[in-house]
Amino acid sequence: MTAALTATQRSGRPSKLSKRDERQFVREVEKDRSITPEPLTEAFNKCLTISVSSRTVQRTLHNYGFYSRVANQKPLATEKNKKIRIGWCKRMKNWKEEWDMVVFGDESRYLIFKMMLI
Q1: Which of 5, 25, 48, 116 has a CA between 20 and 30 Å from the CA of residue 18?
Q2: 16/49 Cα distance (integer angstroms)
Q3: What is residue 90's predicted lDDT score, i.e. its pLDDT?
Q4: Is residue 50 part of a domain?
Q5: Is 10 exposed, middle or buried, given 0-12, 13-18 or 19+ CB atoms closer than 10 A?
Q6: Burial class (CB in 10 A: 0-12, 13-18, 19+), 40
Q7: CA distance linking residue 63 with residue 59, whole number of Å
Q8: For the whole prediction, is pTM greater than 0.70?
Q9: How far apart are CA 40 and CA 60, in angstroms?
Q10: Mind listing the pLDDT tens digit for each residue in 3-12?
Q11: Domain membership flag for residue 74
Q12: How many domains are there within the chain?
């Protein structure tokens, strides 16, 4: 004898969003991976009959495996700097004994994110 499964009442507040609404959020994020929950929420609140918070959108996207990340900052290399570096590399390419005359020190100054590191 097999017992029949029935849907029982669950504890907790039911979700405001339907599965269809959730899939729509996912489709929008897949179109533009750089979109944040705030503009996505504004756009959906205009067309939905219910109002949801950006936190609800963020939680929904987390449930579908989407997480926010901060993009890495790229080094500031202008075209002029690139040409200067390539020229230096081409000049040093044939150095052999000359490298013995170069002193490499362990003290350097780096400017990272407008902070001086020594």
Answers
A1: 5
A2: 11
A3: 93
A4: yes
A5: exposed
A6: buried
A7: 6
A8: no
A9: 12
A10: 677 777 778 8
A11: no
A12: 1
